[in-house]
Design a protein that fits this description.
Blueprint lengths: L25 H23 L13 H6 L1 H15 L4 H17 L12 H12 L1 H19 L6 H16 L10 H26 L18 H15 L1 H33 L11
Helix pairs in contact: 1-3, 1-8, 3-6, 4-5, 4-6, 5-6, 5-7, 5-8, 5-10, 6-7, 7-8, 8-10
Length: 284
């Protein structure tokens, strides 16, 4: 007599859901392209406008005009969340990460570039993807501005720059394959370069309006593009190089020391949230 068979089929190992980045639809991609193009114009108008352009005549009004970009940013963030179909778990994670980043920003108060929030944005963008990263970076900077009282005409520029900073981490290669030390070194390298890029882009938001200083590094609306580029480079070297270097070093150190643990935690949270898993019902 053969041994009695067990009831049911052979047990199969349960496959854990893979941590995947939040995917965006075509309308969200179009919205990101639109706001990014608007941001490039908002940051780079001094370099894009010709020497004879009348834009420079309204230089004193420009910060407040560009502050209206904040409304567009908030609208894009809301549309991105809505169109991407993010569920309550994804929105909850967005809120937690944004609150954490906002709380980290006052640490060091930017002294000598001690800004630990940047490493959190790099790792979050890496795990959750470029679209989620842009939303996270913008919302985090908005929340931190409210927390620290840093609301002003510079805020939409900060939101855009941080959105690009976090989105760039989500565009790095090998999100599903690269792991371990190789991934950490790649993220640290990106964080180092992107920290300088963030500072350089933010310099563009204030550099055109320092004409009262009458210095050789101020924006000259009547000068040609090469001359203004030389002035801008001198301005960056003289004013923000120390802060940018400090920000870059802090981002690298925190990424290499805490990155592995935080990446694992973020991926575990993403798997458990299963943002894109369809709802199914087991038959009885």
């Amino acid at each position: 007599m053969s041994a009695p068979e067990t009831a049911g089929t052979t047990a199969r190992p349960v496959q854990q859901p893979q941590a995947r980045a939040v995917r965006l639809g075509p309308r969200s991609v179009a919205a990101l392209v639109l706001v990014s193009a608007t941001g490039v114009a908002g940051f780079g108008w001094p370099l894009l406008a010709g020497p004879g352009s009348r834009v420079g005549a309204h230089a004193q009004d420009a910060p407040w005009l560009f502050a209206g970009l904040l409304v567009l940013l908030v609208a894009v963030v809301a549309a991105t969340i809505s169109e991407s179909g993010l569920g309550p778990k994804a929105v909850a994670m967005l809120g937690v990460l944004a609150a954490t980043g906002a709380a980290l920003r006052p640490v060091g108060a930017g002294t000598a570039g001690i800004e630990p929030m940047f490493f959190l944005m790099v790792l979050s963008g890496r795990v959750l993807g470029p679209g989620f990263g842009f939303v996270l970076g913008s919302v985090t900077m908005f929340a931190s501005a409210l927390l620290t009282g840093g609301v002003g005409p510079w805020m939409p520029f900060q939101m855009l720059a941080m959105g690009w900073f976090t989105m760039g981490a989500g565009l790095l290669p090998g999100p599903d394959r690269l792991r371990g030390r190789g991934e950490l070194f790649m993220l640290a390298g990106y964080g180092f370069l992107a920290a300088f890029a963030y500072g350089t882009v933010m310099n563009l938001s204030g550099w055109p309006f320092m004409d009262a200083l009458a210095s050789n590094v101020a924006f000259d609306p009547h000068a040609a593009l090469p001359a203004n580029l030389a002035r801008f480079l001198a301005y960056c070297l003289a004013t923000s190089l120390g802060w940018d270097l400090g920000r870059a070093v802090v981002t690298v150190v925190l990424t290499l020391t805490l990155g592995a643990t935080l990446l694992k935690a973020l991926r575990r949270a993403t798997r458990r949230a299963a943002f894109e898993s369809p709802v199914t019902f087991d038959p009885r």
